[in-house]
Every structure is written in C-alpha cells, then in structure tokens.
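> forwarded from #structure-qc
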C-alpha cells in the first residue's frame, strides 16, 4: 500500500471536495467568483496577508531556512494559495475591491507593524494556523476560485507566479562559535527521569497565542547528566520512555554544555546561550505551591480582523498546607450576521491534597481519584508560573 504524505492527503481532500461539489452543485462552477464582499474570502485574504506581512519582514532580515521555506511551499500548494493570489491580482483592477484589500492589509499592519524580531518564525507559524488550512475550511471557495477567468492550470501556474520564499543562505559559523559536535553515541537516559536529570532551566521562543496574537513563550528545558537536553518537557511523561520519545520526536532533543561558567545549548549546529542562565537541580525539599494558576489555550481570528475566538482553560488553586482545587471550562464568541453569539461552560471543581517529590506532583482527590504530573517551577519565583507535563500555568488573581 502506498504511503501518503500530509501534502498528498490534503490535496486528495481538496480534489474530493471539488468533485463532490461539481457533482451535486454544478451551479458553483458558473457562480460569480468570490471577492472581498464575500465574508469567507475576505477572511481568507486577511489570513494570507498576515502571512505575507511576516514573510516580507523575514526576507528583509535574511530569509527562512531551506527547511522552513519548504514547509511554506507545501502549505501553499495544498491550500490553493496560488489561486487566491491570482484572484487578488484580478481584484486590483476594480478600485472598490482594491480599496477593501488595502484596508485588510492596513489592519494587519496596525496589529503587527512593529513586530520584526521573530518574523520568520511568525511567517511559518501563520501558515500552520487552523484558519490557514483553506483546503479544509473553505473547499467550496477554492472550487469557485478554480473556475478559470481566462487562464488554465490555476494552481501550479499561480504558485509559480507568486513571489518566491526568501531562503536564508547558509553561513559559516564564526570562529568563536564553531559547529557543534555530532550527537553523542550514547542513547538518551532510559532510567527514572528524576534520577538522570542534572538540572532544569528556561528558554524563550515566539508563538502565536489566543486570537492569533504573537507572544513570547517562556518554556523549561531539561538537562540530563549525559549531555542530552530536552526542550519539550512533555517528553518526561512519554509512556514508552525517553529513548522512544527521542526516536519519535528528535527535534525536541539537543545537547548542552557549560563553557566558562555559561550554559550553552546546541541550536541548529551552533552553541548558543538560552534566554536564561540559571538552572536548578530538581525542586528543593519542602517546596510548596501557593496560589491560583491557569492554563489557557485556543484559537481565533481576532488578531487579523475577524470576530471569532474560542478558548479552553484548566486551573489549579494550591495552598501551602497541601490542599488543592481544580477547575476547567471553555468559552467562545462567534459573529453571526450583525450580531454575535457567546458561549461558556465549566466543569464542577474537584478538591483534594497534593504532594511534591522532586519533579513529581501527585494529587489525591476527595472522590478517590488520583493524578500525577511532572512539575517544573522556578524555585526563586514559584508564584509567576508553573509547568505541569509541559503545559504552562500562569498565576492569576482569579
């Protein structure tokens, strides 16, 4: 049986949607092609313009790596980006439509105009957002766009006409930072994670948060005694063990070392300092949690001019005496015509007691249920944030 790649599967889904729509709704073929008065198309344009905004800044700063550029090209081909660009060029001939496109781009600039430091990462991440998967979210719109106005082969020809993704040229590392040595032959730690950990520290990276806004994500890194470093702390709880996690997720692993007292990580072949230099050998005996912590996740289109957003949360309230209360819920807002719909739901709180053992947080609830998490917190500032199984929980006032 042939092995299908995600690109191939996306293309098959798009083709299947086209065939189905042509079979059951032939009127789509002769319907007017979408323009900026169509809400779905206008939202698609806003999403694409957000990507283009960051891609332009990325190109000015040196461009993406070859691997990142390839990911963007795969996304573009799988989601009819070329057809969308072709339609935009057609709309530029209509002053009223061009004004709406310009207005959409002006909205992107207002929100993101000052952000350029992480432009390449933002451009890549914007192509991975759920609303950017046009083949899944708007297949009918792509079918309509595929109805040629004058030229054949809309997908490949339009992709070819689109501006190329800027690729950062490979540069020789400076003398002060020679290429990192190959990964050690020794496998990653296989025993109890707590027994193999040298210490843990913190680094930072840009990410797209709730509503599509760019934020800086501070995350823990786990440093093992054999020189391995884990940049996704969820790997500590991988059911098959750390060695299996590395085989399945090699990008989450690297090497670490100290040089002249400085902590260094191997980042894509170069030794570089993480954002924070302090590291901690587990959590101290007698460490206690105190406060209300919440993890929030979600998606939406608010940051790019839309009005839709959905979010889910899980929270814990810890007391120094060992008591804990857990809650969870979700909410959303969606525009419908001239109005909007807001929804919210929450689960009953659960109460119990917690215990800490090194990096392990164990909770025994009053109803007899139990849960266990890998806990990482900054011993010098435990009231700012904690990480449970790699998920960040920010301290809140409630």
């Amino acid at each position: 049986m042939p092995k299908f790649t995600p690109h191939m599967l996306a293309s098959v889904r798009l083709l299947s949607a086209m065939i189905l729509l042509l079979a059951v709704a032939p009127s789509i073929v002769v319907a007017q092609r979408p323009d900026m008065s169509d809400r779905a198309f206008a939202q698609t344009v806003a999403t694409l313009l957000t990507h283009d905004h960051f891609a332009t800044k990325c190109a000015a700063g040196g461009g993406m790596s070859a691997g990142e550029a390839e990911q963007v090209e795969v996304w573009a081909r799988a989601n009819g980006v070329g057809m969308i660009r072709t339609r935009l060029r057609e709309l530029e001939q209509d002053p009223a439509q061009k004004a709406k496109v310009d207005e959409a781009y002006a909205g992107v600039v207002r929100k993101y105009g000052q952000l350029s430091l992480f432009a390449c990462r933002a451009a890549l991440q914007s192509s991975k957002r759920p609303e950017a998967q046009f083949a899944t979210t708007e297949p009918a719109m792509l079918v309509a766009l595929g109805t040629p106005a004058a030229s054949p082969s809309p997908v490949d020809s339009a992709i070819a006409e689109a501006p190329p993704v800027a690729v950062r040229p490979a540069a020789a590392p400076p003398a002060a930072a020679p290429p990192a040595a190959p990964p050690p032959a020794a496998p990653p730690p296989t025993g109890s994670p707590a027994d193999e950990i040298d210490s843990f520290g913190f680094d930072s990276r840009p990410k797209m948060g709730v509503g599509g806004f760019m934020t800086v994500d501070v995350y823990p890194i786990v440093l093992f005694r054999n020189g391995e470093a884990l940049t996704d702390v969820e790997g500590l709880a991988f059911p098959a063990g750390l060695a299996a996690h590395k085989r399945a997720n090699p990008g989450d692993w690297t090497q670490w070392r100290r040089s002249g007292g400085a902590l260094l990580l191997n980042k894509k072949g170069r030794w570089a300092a993480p954002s924070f230099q302090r590291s901690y050998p587990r959590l101290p005996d007698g460490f206690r949690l105190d406060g209300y912590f919440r993890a929030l996740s979600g998606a939406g289109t608010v940051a790019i001019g839309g009005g839709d957003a959905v979010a889910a949360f899980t929270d814990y309230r810890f007391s120094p005496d060992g008591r804990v209360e857990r809650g969870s819920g979700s909410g959303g807002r969606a525009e419908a015509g001239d109005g909007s719909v807001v929804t919210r739901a929450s689960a009953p709180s659960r109460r119990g007691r917690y215990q800490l053992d090194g990096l392990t947080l164990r909770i025994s609830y009053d109803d007899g249920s139990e849960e266990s998490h890998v806990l990482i917190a900054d011993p010098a500032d435990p009231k700012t944030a904690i990480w449970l199984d790699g998920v960040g929980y920010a301290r809140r006032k409630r």
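QC bot note: The first helix runs from residue 6 to 24. The two ends are 54 Å apart (CA to CA).
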